[in-house]
Amino acid sequence: MKTVNLIPLIFLAFGLLFFSSPAIASFSELGYATTTAVSESSPESIGEYRDESAPKISYDRIDEVKKKCKSVLSSASELKLDEISRDLRKAKKRLGFRYGDWNQDPGDSPILPFDSINSSSKPLNLVSFKVTDLDLPHRTKKYIGVNGVLLLAITTFNELPSFRSYGSREFELWPSHTQLKISFQGIYFENDDKERVLCMLGETMLPSRESDSSPWKWVKDHEPPPLLQDDQILLLLRNPKRFTLTNRVIKGELKSLNQSPNFKFFDKVSLFSQLGKSVSYDFVSNDLVSKACDPYPYKNETFISNSGSVDVYKSKRFCDLLQRVTSRAALTVVPNWKCNGTDEFCSKLGPFASDGDIKSTDGSFKDVKLYMQNVHCQETDATTTRVSAVFRAVHPSENLYISGMRTGLSNMTVTAEGIWKPSSGQLCMVGCRRGEANACNARVCLYIPTSFSMRQRSILVGTFSSLNTEESLNFFPLSFEKLVEPMDMQNYFQSTLLHPFYSYSKLSEAGVILEKNQEFSFGTVIKKSVLRFPKLEDSDDYLSSLSLLAEDLTFHTPAFTGKRRGSGTNLGMDVLSLGSLFGLFWRTSNATTVEQSGPYRTRAQYTEKQLLLNVSAQISLTGEAFGNFSVIYLEGLYDEHVGRMYLAGCRDVRASWKVLFESADLESGLDCLIDVVVSYPPTKSRWLADPTAKVSVSSRRPDDDPLYFSPVKLETTPIFYRRQREDILSRAGVEGILRVLTLTFSIGCITSQVFYVSSVTDSLPFVSLVMLGVQALGYSLPLITGAEALFKRKAASAAASYETPSYDLQRSQWFNVIDYTVKLLVMVCFLLTLRLCQKVWKSRARLVARTTTQEPRKVPSDRRVLLRAVILHALGYVLALILHPARTERFNEAFGGYAPAAANWWQTETEEYIGLVQDFFLLPQVIANFMWQIDSMQPLRKLYYLGITLVRLFPHVYDYMIGSVPDPYFIGEEHEFVNPNLDFFSKFGDVAIPVTAILLAVVVFVQQRWDYDKLSQALAFGRFRILPSRSVKYERVMSQPIESEMVSGVSNRRDDEE
């Protein structure tokens, strides 16, 4: 036989080592980036594509433009180019707009088709315009050449593309979105009416209509659109020069210059937008503001009755705070819970238009939102600040995100201007519907509270009230608010001069709930003495300790009701205040008292009163609806001894105005007759208790009350605490070192076997190649897949920490060093195992060369060993597949619908069973020893087979002793080698697998100490014999060749026979 060349194997292993992890990761990142680039244009749109890297700038139609725009150009005045030439970029931006509105005159010639899908969202007509060039070198006294791009769209969910993507198609259509890009060239001039006018001619590829009865039949049939080249499109835009309360609307017209029978003809399109922040606002509406706010401050009875005694912001830098609070944030509209009038009156949405969608809410205004846009704030002096803004109401059926970017003015918008003074903290404004001077019939009063309570959870509070006594225009005062989020408090109040605070008002009710739910039993006593729950810890100061505890008490996780695990909801528990701490992880604005300063140290014993902490929080539920609430405001007590919160709750009731008015026990429109109990899992000894949080919500109202709801009991998936997350991260490094140590020990065991077989060449052929093959397979898989065979479950869990993404661990230099070291050691184990295989193969080849044809059984063969091992493992694999449904059912009971995908379960089982085969690596050797009937021969060194057995069993023992913390954030994720939730590392497996592997090692030890006859007699029970009688014995051929002797074919064998 020829010598096995190890040099290619070495190069192969080194290649696997250096390309398995970082290199492949980099390729995957490139692949991901490519995939992302493709997915950004994933909606397969249809239309003609023109690849343009930049907008086309041309002025070859200026003469034609002057003819078509003759009627409006005649009113042009002499241009003052100072503003334009001073800042050309700003001048172009001032003439454009984004997310305006458009509508088309009724007729038979629509301009755009729309492929609607089954969705409750309302499609929006949006338009954007941008000036791409101003031809200053060729200007005249009255006009300047201009180029621009207009984007016309009908969309339900999608944003308008950026004008930077000039290479986009002129016409695009996909379900729920249609857009048309038109390129224009024309002239810019100013008239005597103080307007900036753009008159332009455009060209594009228009979608063609087929007939008047069904113009867009090809859309329904999903056919490619017939497109028509059209350059007879006229655009006329009028921008006001001054930006004021009632003078801000940008108006435009888009007309076709073709005649009606032509398929290129379309009915006139009207465009609407408004001036934005690129234009300076003029505060000149003092008379209108005085109409609403004189005398200042206005006595707002609605705010006083709803909020009670509330402190409001009265410090400096009001403009900065207002911008932070209102920036792209939707405001909540409060129901008309105090209204007592006709149904029409109480269903009005304040000064906004109340169409069918609004009236269908019956005064509850459920899912109706409000945006405060285009805020201009100017501090004129130390005592007065002027503010201008636009309030936009959003229908429940509109896309909230896109509606927040709209700029068009309609019946659902109110422009406002007013003043704020630090003496009162009230922002009083006059409101004009659609920005029209004859519609300024509303007053807006707005406040930024700095004190919070159970009934006051808003960072912004405001009301609309009517200035008109006429019945048709009058409306009930409409309140709105922006609810505070605990994590956002530090973004709002950044100044150390201001100290917002929380006032507890429901502690007595919480005490009643505590007494009702605190049961005394032997189990409770054991629980208090054995288990430990989140509590105050030693820290730099008292506030820091409170902040760390508030972090542990905050969680966001899936939750389920009872045994119904298939569908669940997302449960969020956010702590707003804890003790004297207000705002999570927020210390700069929290007042520091004498008792809070200095290091804080916990005491060994506390009184029962000292163990109860005041707490304010809120529960948010998304997904499945429970009763009529999605957010519950909470206030009560937290007991550190048992890890429970006893809370009184309030919910925002979204019921008919009649129901709300008849409910006399509402507190500021909130239903506060709610009991909530939150039970937290222990921080230690988690094997003694369920590591899930439990939430119980119940109503104290009678069953026949309209606001009553059935009790709700929720159970979360297992949750982590801060210390446990830190332990997981630190444990990952410890386990990496353990992998290095165990692999180093494995190298020593294999090396000892290599030297051992050199001295016992007679026993060398009786080493099973199947056993060595199983080990080689176990060492090669990590090099190919990048997964470490040892502690794979622990490494996966460590990389899946609560708030630290796995890629952060992978990129960590320390983890990379461990990763490379492990792969290097695995490669050494692989090469040493191949060396053992080579020695066994060569020794058998020498036996074959020294054995006659009449004595074939003197040479051991692994064929039948492999066959029997495969049969046994096949039976075990089938058994694992049969038991899979039962394990999956138990897993679903624990974690609901978050189990791994059913399509990959067989792959997961296969990967897990490969690990089990490696744990039972001695099974082929046991089978071979029985088949070959060895007599006290010792082919395996005790250090080798006992040492490798210990290495394979160490992860199971480690897992059983340390215990694994369930990771709810990696439930169902795919792992490279074994699944950390449905693998053989279960508690039963951690016991059964080591016992079986040790039993195999004991059998090998006995086989190598006793001959076959003695072993057969020992396993005989009367006439029943476990082992069969001796057959033809595998005899040893006495030969002591030197290690360098090589066998080279049949010719050598014939020489030996001669």
UniProtKB/TrEMBL annotation:
UniProt topology in membrane: Multi-pass membrane protein
Family matches, as InterPro entries: DUF2921 (IPR021319), DUF2921_N (IPR057425)
EC number of the protein: 2.3.2.27
Keyword match Signal: yes
Catalysed reaction, written as an equation: S-ubiquitinyl-[E2 ubiquitin-conjugating enzyme]-L-cysteine + [acceptor protein]-L-lysine = [E2 ubiquitin-conjugating enzyme]-L-cysteine + N(6)-ubiquitinyl-[acceptor protein]-L-lysine
Alphabetic keyword roster: Membrane, Signal, Transferase, Transmembrane, Transmembrane helix, Ubl conjugation pathway
Signal peptide: 1-25
Molecular function GO labels: ubiquitin protein ligase activity
Subcellular localization, as worded in the UniProt entry: Endomembrane system
Transmembrane annotation, as ranges: 736-757, 764-784, 817-837, 865-883, 984-1006
Stretches assigned to the SWEET-like domain: 724-1013
Keyword Membrane annotated: yes
This protein's GO CC annotations: endomembrane system
Recorded metabolic or biological pathway in which this protein acts: Protein modification; protein ubiquitination
Domain DUF2921: 65-270, 289-479, 518-712
Protein name per UniProt: RING-type E3 ubiquitin transferase
Record organism: Microthlaspi erraticum
